[in-house]
Amino acid sequence: MDKRLVVVGTGMLAEQVHYYFDTLGGRPVDAFALDAQFIREPQFLGRPVLDFAEVQRRFPSDTHELFVAIGFTATAARKRWFLAVRAAGYSMPSYVHPSACVAANVAVGENTLIQEQAMVSPFVRLGENLILCPQVGINHHTRVGAHCFFAPAAVVAGDADIGERCFIGANATIRDRVRIGEGCVIGAGALIMADCPADGVYRAARTGRTRESEE
């Protein structure tokens, strides 16, 4: 029988994770966790909000698993929590939405969320602690490092390398055989045609307003 859950975070991603695991999956979420200095309210979605020390006291690893649901603005914090939860002896489940298509020879690591209609092709290697939003496409032989976040409809062509802690924005496209260094931010709608050194920020040109709308 699956263990019950505690979710790290109280933002919109944590609310989605609660929906997938608890509402859809029938795995009860008993509490939410935050660093003590960020706890503003005692409850979230009707469950207690606790610091990690209290989580370990009330919901130990022999009865509970944790899912780290910290969003795209804090990939470093998501990595820190992931490592702390693992060091404390907790296992971390993953969730793959039934409408997603993940090739049979692709292993999904711990604490990974793959949402509606995402596609992961054969021979892809996925790291741990990933978020793949709806309609993300990761094509054949691509390697994805841990702690990355892929926003909706981001596409990675075949045989690419994505380093750890990268954020790939909505509708961004990364061509085949491109290497993205760790910690990169690829903006919404960006087209990446060449290698990107680590910790770079790559934005698409914004579409400006051209005229007033007609009545």
Report on the architecture of this protein:
The chain has helices at residues 12-24, 52-58, 75-87, and strands spanning 4-8, 29-33, 43-44, 47-50, 64-68, 95-96, 101-102, 113-114, 119-120, 125-126, 131-132, 137-138, 143-144, 149-150, 155-156, 161-162, 167-168, 173-174, 179-180, 185-186, 191-192, 201-202. It is α/β, with parallel strands linked by helices and 215 residues long. The chain folds into 2 domains: 4-87, Rossmann fold (3-Layer(aba) Sandwich), CATH 3.40.50; 94-199, Hexapeptide repeat proteins (UDP N-Acetylglucosamine Acyltransferase, domain 1, 3 Solenoid), CATH 2.160.10. The chain has a 7-stranded parallel β-sheet, with helices on one face. A hairpin with a 2-residue loop joins β3 (43-44) and β4. The chain is globular and about 50 Å long.
The number of distinct structural domains comes to 2
Oligomeric assembly: single chain
H/E element order: EHEEEHEHEEEEEEEEEEEEEEEEE
Sheet with the most strands, sense and barrel status: 7 strands, parallel
CATH superfamily of the largest domain: Hexapeptide repeat proteins
CATH architecture of the largest domain: 3 Solenoid
Computed Rg: 18 Å
DSSP strand content: 25-35%
What distance separates the N and C termini? 60 Å
Would you tell me the structural class of the helices and strands? Answer: alpha/beta
The CATH topology annotation of the largest domain reads as UDP N-Acetylglucosamine Acyltransferase, domain 1
Number of strands: 22
Specify the overall morphology. globular
Strand order of the largest sheet: 6-8-11-14-17-20-22
Helical percent range?
10-25%
Number of helices: 3
Contiguous runs where pLDDT drops below 50 for at least 5 residues: none
